[in-house]
User: Fold these one by one.
Assistant:
Number 1:
Amino acid sequence: MKGRVQLTSESPPFYRVALSTIPELVVTTGSDERIELNGDERRLTILPRPPRTSNGPDVQVLRPEPGTVGLVVAASLSNKERDRIEQAGLSWCDARGAAHFTWPGLYFHVDHGTRRATRPSRVPEPGLGVASIRGVQTMLASPEAPWSVSILAKEAALSTGQAHNVLKILERNRLVRIQGVGPRTRRYLRDRDEALEWLASVERGRRRPETAAGYLYARTFDDLIDRFVRRASEAKVTYALTASSGAIALGHPVLTNPLVLQARVSPLDAGQTLGVLGLERLDAEEAGRGMNLELWTDSGELGTYRSEDAGRARVAPRVRVWLDMVRQGGRNADAAELFKEQAL
């Protein structure tokens, strides 16, 4: 069965991304949100992921407009969430290639879940630079907190214009709910997991940080952390361990036999920082054979701003540790899921 989904030009970009992972659907743009399957066309009400409660996902709060097909669109949905949504007579679609549409006289269900969706990583988010990403990170670190422009500007070290832009982008992607009016307006994250997955998709579409490889003698990985921290402290280098190195320093050994320590450094770039530490920068061929230290230039202070004191080392904010693992892919992406369960 082939079908068509029509979105408006104001629809959040993520909706187009998620629906485009379904090969059976063609996504177009029009004056309103509609769906057509098997020649039957209906108006759509696109709904956010249901909030989680102690009793599971609360689908009762999802209220589509009368006479429309209620469609929950999310980056991912658990089997329990899918079941609850279907039991409520609603439809759903996630960005992993799965969708379920139903209304009187029609049933459509596909699941291409074994195919990893890559399109979200290629969708740009206008206006979301490194400073704005730092703002979203700050909100994700306190997912239950109320946010205004002034509060976000202060907590994330943003200008009021940048903070306003961050909140507007989150509104456009329907990742926040709004309470109050005027000066009392506050925004709350709707669903932290949804916002994390959205930010990860934004990260995948950005250039990787500039890196520099080096070598520091150490007997074990724990010894490597201690020796690096000692050198950084003596040289007054601002750093934050990240990715699997940050997770291990926080007491979450998400990788077995780690070989390379990763750290974000600021304000000097990664290559300059190696020189300050008195270490030689390895070229690509040498790095492949003997590196055990990888420094990342911390543009926008994504890792070093509000870094966490883990006792033995400074570690990037946990959201950043997770994001840096996710974008590395492979076994690091698997480790990111474990870290998310244990530490986020």
Number 2:
Amino acid sequence: MVVPAELERLAYNVSVFRKEMKDYLSAFGECYDKFTITEKDTFLGYVSETAIIDYLDRKYGDIINIHRWSDRFDLGRIRYAVKNHLNDYQEIEYVRNYFYDKYDLEIVEKRTGRSINIDVKTAETSKQPQSTWYFLYPVVQNNRAGKDCVILCYYYKRENSKRIILIGYITEDEISQKKILRAGTKTEFGTINQIDNFETKVTDYKPLSQMLGYYYGERADRR
């Protein structure tokens, strides 16, 4: 997916809004996430989620519905609470429940109503992604309940072009079987792990068509 300027603007606004929510929750002692999400992470996540929704809806919209975590909430209510710094337990709790999302996307099979919860991960690169690359997935996120699988994307950023490349999916169970690189140890690129990470490879991630087949038994081998 080529990333249009309008999508970038929307993603930037989402990242600013998330920072405002974080400040709001911090003011009331409710910002305690152990895995810090940066504004860049929010930006990349929103762009990738949009690309995945667009791809799945175009190819499989007749058999599935796709929802963001935010679809469960009244964003107007959240904006009002944050903007007006409402010191009300119910409003703080509502913002907190939205802020600490249990998943990024929910995919629902229309025929049965069965659903799967997706964690979207995005890495930014100025190089064409290669099958030999590794992606480190935080152990703390794998331990969280509520997610079934992970979809990996790359934000391929070049001078005159920005694209989202969908790599594929892997289940949380499969990730939990991968080698753990402990915090403080070096990666093969010489960087230091800040937290415990599972070491996954690009080749571990399977096509999204297989994801639907795995969870729903659907024939999803469409061109």
Number 3:
Amino acid sequence: MSKVVSTNKDQAVTSRGWEALEIKLKIRGLSCAEIQEAHKSFDEGIELLSRMFLNCYDLEKKPLV
């Protein structure tokens, strides 16, 4: 995930992953506690997705009999 922060109008400002989501949540006016809960949920979701990927990847590498 990359994050480029710029104050120059000629350069692109790009946030990805949690940083992008956090910016959107702050704009919507969520409290610090709500943002912390969202961050926890985001991290848990990423962890679940990575485990799912690894399980599928392991299954693909096993020879079929």
